[in-house]
Structures are given as structure tokens and as C-alpha cells.
């Protein structure tokens, strides 16, 4: 029997729980569980940032723009073990109220592909990465915004936008 190390085991558990939450949201909300998932992401980001600040002393500064917040959340996520490198993400400003995001080697690609195979459209997809970036913008910059998945491919990249409402 193989033995999975704690880091891989932690990722496996996290991805499993997140997938289960999103599947359950679809069970109760059909193809449009986005409102439910957005609240999950908001609670998750609040707990994560709170624990990093309170238990580990990691400074969690306020931010002032969508891009600044996403960049800060990525840095915090690297320090907190959530992300491996800034190179996992590409950020592109369309204008000050919209940020395009590419997530390379997305951990959740299999979940999205399963949904597409079941007949869902890209418009129906929720996205834990981009959704949590949106939640961080709301928490740290107090900017109300929306997110949308625009595309993904089997090579592991997904793309989406965060835009001020």
C-alpha cells in the first residue's frame, strides 16, 4: 500500500471537500449554484485570512483595487502554503474595474471537465480559485464584484474575470 505524504493528503482532502460542496450546491440549486458557492468562498477566505493573521501572525493588509488584492492574496497564499508560485497565475487589467485571470495547472480541472461532460456549459461553472480571489477583493478592498469563468482547457489552464459590479 502506498503512503501519501501530509501535504498531498491535505490537498486531496481540500479538493474533495470543495468538490463535494459544489456538487451539493448543484443538487439544491441546479445548474446555477453560484450565489451559494460565492458565500462558501467568502467564508473560506475569511477563515483562511483570519487564521493566518491570528494564529501565524501573517500581516493581512487592506488593499484598494481588484488587481492589488489578487496580487496580495496570491502572496499571502504562497506564504500560507495554498499556492506554490506566482507563476501559477497570469493577471491582465482590461480596465481598472476588470481583471482577467489565467490559472495555470488548475487543481480543480477534473471537476470542471466532469461537469462539461455531464452537459453543463462554461457559463454554469463555478471556480474555487477565481471565486476566492473575488471573495478576497470583497474582504480586503471592500469592492463588490462578480466573477465569471470564460474558458478552460485540458492542459490545465482556466481563465476568468473579476469585475466591479
How many whole angstroms does the radius of gyration measure? 16 Å
The averaged pLDDT comes out at 91
Number of domains: 1
Q: What is the overall number of helices?
A: 5
Globally, the shape reads globular
Instruction: State which percent range the strand residues make up.
Output: 15-25%
| Biggest β-sheet strands, sense, barrel | 4 strands, antiparallel
Write up this protein:
With 165 residues, the protein is of the alpha+beta class. The protein has one domain (6-164): Muramoyl-pentapeptide Carboxypeptidase, domain 2 (2-Layer Sandwich), CATH 3.30.1380. It has five helices and four strands; from the N terminus they run αααββααββ. The chain has helices at residues 6-29, 34-56, 66-79, 109-117, 128-141, and strands at residues 89-95, 98-103, 145-152, 158-164. Strands 1-2-4-3 form a four-stranded antiparallel sheet, covered by helices on one side. A hairpin with a 5-residue loop joins strand 3 and strand 4. Helix 1 (6-29) runs antiparallel to helix 2. The termini are far apart.
Could you name the key traits of this structure?
globular, 4 strands, alpha+beta, four-stranded antiparallel β-sheet, Muramoyl-pentapeptide Carboxypeptidase, domain 2, 165 residues, 17% strand, 5 helices
Describe the structure in brief:
This protein has helices at residues 6-29, 34-56, 66-79, 109-117, 128-141; strands at residues 89-95, 98-103, 145-152, 158-164.
Helix/strand layout:
Blueprint: H1 6-29, H2 34-56, H3 66-79, E1 89-95, E2 98-103, H4 109-117, H5 128-141, E3 145-152, E4 158-164
Helix pairs in contact: 1-2, 2-5, 3-5
Amino acid at each position: 500500500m502506498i503512503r501519501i505524504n501530509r501535504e498531498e493528503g491535505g490537498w486531496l482532502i481540500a479538493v474533495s471537500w470543495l468538490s463535494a460542496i459544489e456538487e451539493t450546491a448543484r443538487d439544491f440549486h441546479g445548474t446555477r449554484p453560484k450565489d451559494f458557492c460565492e458565500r462558501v468562498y467568502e467564508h473560506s477566505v475569511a477563515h483562511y485570512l483570519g487564521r493566518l493573521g491570528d494564529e501565524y501572525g501573517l500581516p493581512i493588509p487592506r488593499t484598494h483595487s481588484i488587481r492589488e488584492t489578487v496580487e496580495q492574496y496570491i502572496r499571502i497564499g504562497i506564504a500560507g502554503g495554498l499556492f506554490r508560485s506566482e507563476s501559477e497565475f497570469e493577471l491582465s487589467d482590461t480596465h481598472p474595474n476588470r481583471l482577467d485571470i489565467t490559472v495555470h495547472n488548475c487543481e480543480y480541472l477534473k471537476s470542471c471537465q466532469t461537469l462539461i461532460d455531464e452537459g453543463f456549459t462554461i457559463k454554469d461553472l463555478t471556480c474555487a480559485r477565481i471565486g476566492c480571489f473575488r471573495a478576497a477583493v470583497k474582504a480586503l478592498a471592500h469592492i463588490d464584484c462578480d466573477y465569471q469563468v470564460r474558458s478552460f482547457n485540458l492542459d490545465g489552464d482556466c481563465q476568468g474575470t473579476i469585475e466591479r459590479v
